[in-house]
Amino acid sequence: MSETAYLSSVRASYDAVAVDCARLLGTALDGRPLDRALLAAFAESVRAGGPRGAAGPAVADLGCGPGRITAHLNRLGVRAFGVDLSPAMVAVARRSHPGLRFEVGAMGSLDVADGALAGAVAWHSTLHTPPEELPSLFGEFARVLAPGGHLLLAFGAGEGRVRLDRAYGHAVDLTVHRMPPDRVAELLSGAGLAESARLVRQPEAGEDCPQGFLLARKASPAA
Ligand SMILES: C[S@@+](CC[C@H](N)C(=O)[O-])C[C@H]1O[C@@H](n2cnc3c(N)ncnc32)[C@H](O)[C@@H]1O
Fold first, then answer.
1. Which CATH architecture is the domain 3-218 placed in?
2. pLDDT tens digits, residue range 65-123?
3. Which residues are paired to 92 by β-bridges?
4. How far from chain centre, in Å, is Cα 140?
5. 63: Cβ below 6 Å to ligand 1?
6. Could you state a single Gene Ontology molecular function term (predicted)?
7. Of 72, 115, 64, 68, residue with least CA distance to 90
8. Cβ(218) – ligand 1 distance below 6 Å
9. Measured between alpha carbons, how far is 3 from 117 in angstroms, rounded to an integer?
10. CB-ligand 1 contact for 14 (6 Å cutoff)
11. What is the pLDDT of residues 151-178, one digit of tens each?
């Protein structure tokens, strides 16, 4: 499937599920202490070390969906904004979090200047990217991060892919790619993003595979 076809399917599928996805994901972080711990560690690292704009370090939530992670990061004291391919998801995010910034966009070609971000999060949003496109995607993440900037990825840890034709009660056309954390770390490293920590936890309610989390950092000239 060409990149255009894959992005079109992802956009159309998430447009269809946006409202129900937001409702079902709404409080999911409440019962996930390890996930919250990683987001807190990421936010603290960004606050401590990131380059600062006038209003604090800027962080992009890439593939933000309904904006729950964007909002959580803002509560943790970083100036996060969301980007998502799906206009319906962005509409839900704007409605749910009226004080925050959300834009429609593809995370593989961001409308963000080189080195503008102190941090970026892709929280279960790289899962539909075909593995052969990950080097280019991670290259784009590295481009927008400032030297010393932090990246946090959450993804389904494992091998292979799963086809989905229904999700959140709607017809969809999605492929979910699982990746071994070693492979993700290797690809990040190839893009200039060095692993600083990782966690793999067992699946919890509503999850069908172990969950991988990787923190990485763009090299800074002083390092
Ligand atoms: C499983 S949802 C996760 C949403 C959000 N990160 C969360 O955890 O609540 C995946 C989201 O990633 C978005 N997405 C997938 N591929 C994308 C791409 N290439 N560019 C921008 N958004 C993308 C989808 O539109 C969808 O909203």
1. 3-Layer(aba) Sandwich (3.40)
2. 999 999 999 999 999 999 999 999 999 999 999 999 999 999 999 999 999 999 999 99
3. none
4. 13
5. yes
6. methyltransferase activity
7. 64
8. no
9. 25
10. yes
11. 999 999 999 999 999 988 899 999 999 9
